[in-house]
């Protein structure tokens, strides 16, 4: 059951792109999102069918009741202020639904022509207040080269912890995974069959273990 649960979680993340690393430290009070404070992250969608955004939230390990609004803005027209891009998705939810240091997924209608277009993920909480607000984790240096974090209209030398995912078939996801695993790898590591063989061996060993346990 545990293996199946892990497998289902990994399948949802296949072919997702972004900056999935967080600092794993509590954000400071200066990073609370409330009032007129706007936090954003730009990215370029590598393919069509954008249908999910994942954000890594921090709740400061407390019960927050403010409303959080997340928007997806199309920056194709290159606005001077990225928060004035064309809004193509908006959702709001209570901060009470968030867990500390945990990914939160937002499903959206698939954007059929998203490939190679620039976007901004905007996070705001107008009714929040100091002590009743959340934050978004990230890194204090720019590791996601196609985009950048924003604090208001100004970019930061940092990136939020985020993932963007796409509407893809199982075969398409496996094909993308194969490319990610084998790209620029030497020898056997550059052949997807090698990883398929390792997975098959793992499955056989797990099956053998369960058979042994069943006989005890």
Task: Provide a descriptive summary of the structure in words.
The chain is of the alpha+beta class and 216 residues long. Helix content is 23%, strand content 31%. It is built from three helices and 13 strands; from the N terminus they run αβββββββββββββαα. It has helices at 2-13, 170-182, 192-215; strands at residues 17-19, 39-44, 50-58, 67-74, 86-94, 102-111, 118-124, 135-136, 138-139, 149-151, 154-155, 159-160, 162-166. The strands form three sheets. Strands 5-4-7-2-10-11 form a six-stranded antiparallel β-sheet, with no helix packed on it. A hairpin with a 2-residue loop joins strand 10 (149-151) and strand 11 (154-155). The protein starts with a helix and ends with a helix. The mean pLDDT is 89.
Keywords summarizing the entry:
216 residues; six-stranded antiparallel sheet; five-stranded antiparallel sheet; 3 helices; 13 strands; globular
Write the layout of secondary structure elements.
Elements: H1 2-13, E1 17-19, E2 39-44, E3 50-58, E4 67-74, E5 86-94, E6 102-111, E7 118-124, E8 135-136, E9 138-139, E10 149-151, E11 154-155, E12 159-160, E13 162-166, H2 170-182, H3 192-215
Antiparallel strand pairs: 1-13, 2-7, 2-10, 3-6, 3-8, 3-13, 4-5, 4-7, 9-12, 10-11
Give the averaged pLDDT, no decimals. Answer: 89
Across the major sheet, the strand order is 5-4-7-2-10-11
**What percent of residues are in strands?**
25-35%
Helical content band: 10-25%
Number of strands: 13
C-alpha end-to-end distance: 20 Å
The dominant shape is globular
Order of helices and strands: HEEEEEEEEEEEEEHH
């Amino acid at each position: 059951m545990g293996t199946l649960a892990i497998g289902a979680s990994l399948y949802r993340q296949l072919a997702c792109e972004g900056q999935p690393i967080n600092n794993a430290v509590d954000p400071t009070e200066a990073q609370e999102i409330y009032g007129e404070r706007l936090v954003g992250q730009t990215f370029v969608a590598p393919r069509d069918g954008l249908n999910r955004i994942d954000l890594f939230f921090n709740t400061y390990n407390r019960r927050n009741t403010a409303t959080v609004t997340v928007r997806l803005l199309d920056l194709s027209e290159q606005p001077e202020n990225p928060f004035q891009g064309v809004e193509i998705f908006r959702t709001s939810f209570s901060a009470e639904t968030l867990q500390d240091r945990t990914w939160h997924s937002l499903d959206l209608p698939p954007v059929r022509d998203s490939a190679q277009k620039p976007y901004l993920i905007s996070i705001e909480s107008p009714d929040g207040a100091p002590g009743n607000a959340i934050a978004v984790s990230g890194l204090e240096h720019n590791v996601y080269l196609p985009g950048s974090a924003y604090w208001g209209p100004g970019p930061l030398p940092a990136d939020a912890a985020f993932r963007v995912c796409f509407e893809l078939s199982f075969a398409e996801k496996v094909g993308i995974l194969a490319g990610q695993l084998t790209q620029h790898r030497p020898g056997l590591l550059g052949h997807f069959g090698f990883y398929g063989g390792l997975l098959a061996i793992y499955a056989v060993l797990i099956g053998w273990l369960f058979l042994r346990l069943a006989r005890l």
